[in-house]
Amino acid sequence: MSRNFISNNLIAHSQNISCMLKQSFLPEALSAKKLREISVKVHCVAQDAYIKLAKRLDAIPNGFPQTTSGVELKLLAKMYTVEEAALASEMRLTPEAPEVIARKVGMNEDTAKALLKTMAKKGLISLMREGAEVRFCLMPFMVGVWEAQLERLDAEEALLFEEYYGTLAQEAMSTPPALHVVIPVEKSIPFEIQVFPYEQASQLLEKSKSFGVQKCICRVQRSLIGKPCKHTTENCLIFAPIEGAFRGASDIKVISKEEALKILHESEEEGLIHTSTNVREGLQYICNCCTCCCGIVRGIAKFGVENSLAKSDFFAVVDPEFCTGCESCSKRCQFGAISLAVDGDVFHVNQKRCVGCGLCVVNCPSQALSLVRKQGDERCIPPRDLSEWRVTKAKNRGISMQNIL
Question: What is the pTM of this model?
């Protein structure tokens, strides 16, 4: 791969070393030669650190695919220092004590622990507490590291992500299972149909004890590159089974359960699609997505990557006897799944395009639409939890998790 992609912070890193060398006691003639040698070495070491980190992130089932342009390395260089990249590339998904990680890279334990804490604050890795001890683990790029950059995101990073997004969507998201699954609007599901807890957004909130809301990083990112959308920005809901879970978090606004339920309802009124982690257990957030900005939903809307978003276990149907052809359903559908039938009198649903969100159902003034539970082979039950999701994703990608767990 070409070395021309080295980003400004790598150059700045080598310039810092050059300044230190100029202030040393080396003879001037020797110093100039040494400067050139050191500059090349610094560039190579820094580049190698980001290449190694990129490979490490791609070893996670979520994936972090390589590009021919090297834009993914520029993105990493924007987010991680060289030292942080070197440390992260030796970490695992399983939480480890700082002394264990320090030994891997030959770093002083106190130095490593301080750096790891800084990285956790930046959302580059995860910090987990076990009593008085702290442990650290690697996070996937998406969903994980990228979403944690909300407070630090600027126009340069937003542009780099946009440049990388096409590869990320078409390669990392093309292999099932999908990162997110659609949660249908509850009012759109007939009362007689059995609904599971993971299919009910309100029930996920009812069972929780802490609630928060964040700005949608997808809409923030698109706005920073000059492509904002009309939808509400602050409506990404997070929740936890323990009280006070988000107290002190600078990027999370703590709210009540009632406020969370209100945001959920307002998102439905706005025509946004509820999505969450594509699992049945351990759900921690609900995104309210649009096809113009959402990093996951855009995968299917812009690039036609069907596996970027798992459909709900329902699909919409139209009762022709009640349909008045008012077009409210087709205008509400973000996936172009609803159109006039051949005879031009009533609308019909293309089940291949329908994601089962139910937004058309609750928006129909004549109640001509309803959600129907899929049957047989049409059904796609989400993995039980994140562990099962990772195992399935790794198997479908043909990679081993032995060195990453």
Answer: 0.87
